[in-house]
Amino acid sequence: MTDSKRFDNYIAGEWVAAPAYSSNINPSDLSDVIGEYAQADVTQVQAAIDAARTAFPAWSTSGIQARSDALDKVGSEILARKEELGNLLAREEGKTLPEAIGEVSRAGNIFKFFAGECLRLSGDYLPSVRPGVHVEVTREALGVVGLITPWNFPIAIPAWKIAPALAYGNCVVFKPADLVPGCAWALAEIISRAGFPAGVFNLVMGSGRVVGEAIVSNPKVDGVSFTGSVGVGRQIAINCVSRQAKVQLEMGGKNPQVILDDADLKQAVELAVQSAFYSTGQRCTASSRLIVTAGIHDKFVEAMAERMRSIKVGHALQSGIDIGPVVSRAQLDQDLGYIDIARNEGARLVAGGSLVTCDTEGYFLAPALFADSTANMRISREEVFGPVANIIKVADYEAALAMANDTEFGLSAGIATTSLKYANHFKRHSQAGMVMVNLPTAGVDYHVPFGGRKGSSYGSREQGRYAQEFYTVVKTSYIGS
Fold first, then answer.
1. Same domain, 297 and 198
2. Which of 9, 155, 184, 380 is deepest in the core (most CB within 10 A)?
């Protein structure tokens, strides 16, 4: 199952060959080469930015119906091809096929949502404090935006950046993660046929050090939306702020899942397994810290170990598989490294943590669960970004809340409890951008805001109507009689 076809960049309405290409390898089967994908150089990035800058004046003032129709067309094609695109996603990223199809469906719905947002643009018409004067408050497109996306959601995250950018009249230069160019190219190909003028949307694939840096540092780029690592995000922020470009960052997480004594044990175990290990734990909203109060702790540890014995790890396209492979060799090495660190620090391995042999050669790892861990261990402080979680025992709710907030991150937090009192208190006092009550920490809707606090996020929220805060600028106009 090898396709040696080359996939080019998309610049100024044309497919453009690159100076170099890179193989896209299936992490479930290392013999499966999905294709050879373009590696743009700085010259191509500059050409994409110039094309976007040229297209911006006409696109930003174009009719809202044409924008809506084009976005809706993209969404409809994505949904019509969800099984095909889901298969591609599962091959290149390693999500199980049902999860991959679900992600593709989400991407299609995002485009359809923002097709509707084109027709719901709003502002304010206000009286002035001065007689005979009125005030209009409107929103206009930001300009040329650079969109840099991660590998863990190779079509959903691009969709939730690209769709609002285009809906609000911006022109896009899109750089996907180098590990997963397949879904990005497929999405770009759909966009290329949807009716957008040349230069409005551009795809430049390649490494972050070349393509990403060229986008971020270019003075013709008015804003950068980035999802990825903390270190890279902070450097992007410094670069953008230094030249007064707008910046939006979604970065790391060390998300807590609190389990209280009064929780339904079966429900708590299931949501913890879903939060920590599904999608191979490769979600920024995954819960890797399971904070459990003393009264239920021992039962929870035992029940988690039992539940994890039934988790099936294997080829992402194989029926009946719960968890696919780790995305790459480098990520697998990182996961195994943290498992060794946890052992060396004195945490007790309760389940998993070993390589899994399958019919194909791939990066298969049994999810690892540690108990007897403490708050100062590296496994409790640092983001692993893999199927590795640890249980921290605490005395009561107050201690659980303090432990949950004891992190530099603040993306998502969850609580399992049957107490309305504790649920409401946790919602108010959790230092996270998103709070889940009796639900997994991973799993969000596309029509409401997404984002965190502290070291997890910087700038305005993504998704839903809140996306306009980044992709538009406010104008105040005064009208005299």
1. no
2. 155
User: Is the CB of residue 227 less than 8 Å from the CB of residue 157?
Assistant: yes
Is residue 451 a part of any domain in this protein? no
pLDDT, tens digit, 9 for 90 and up, residues 350-396: 999 999 999 999 999 999 999 999 999 999 999 999 999 999 999 99
Q: What DSSP designation does 278 have? A: G
Question: Does 250 qualify as catalytic in the annotation?
Answer: yes
Show the tokens assigned to 17. Answer: 């060959």
Measure Cα distances from 55 to 147, 149, 200, 356 in Å. Answer: 17, 23, 6, 51
Let me know whether 197 and 60 are in one domain. Answer: yes
CATH of the domain at 301: 3.40.309.10
pLDDT digit string (tens) for 114-130?
999 999 999 999 999 99
Burial of 339 (0-12, 13-18, 19+ CB in 10 A): buried
Q: Tell me, yes or no, whether 176 and 293 share the same domain.
A: no
Total tally of structural domains belonging to the chain: 2
DSSP state for residue 367 in the 8-state scheme:
-
Which residues touch 109 (CB under 8 Å, ≥6 apart)? 75, 79, 446
Q: Does residue 259 share a domain with residue 247?
A: no
**183 is a catalytic site residue:** no
Structural domain harbouring 371: 255-437
- Closest to 269 (Cα-Cα) out of 315, 310, 325: 310
Domain co-membership, 11 together with 126: yes
Q: Would you say residue 449 lies in a domain?
A: no
Q: Is the dihedral of CA 102, 163, 49, 212 positive or negative?
A: negative
What is the value of pTM for the model shown?
0.96
Residue 117 lies in a domain: yes
Coil/strand/helix, residue 351: strand
3-state SS, residue 50 = helix
Residue 173: phi and psi, rounded to 5, are -120, 115
| Tokens of residue 129, six digits | 């404090």
389 and 401 share one domain: yes
Residue 447 falls within a domain, yes or no?
A: no
Q: In what order do the strands lie in the sheet with 201-203?
A: 14-16, 9-11, 201-203, 171-175, 144-148, 223-227, 246-250, 457-458
- Catalytic entry in 99, 117, 250, 462: 250
pLDDT at 56 over 60: yes
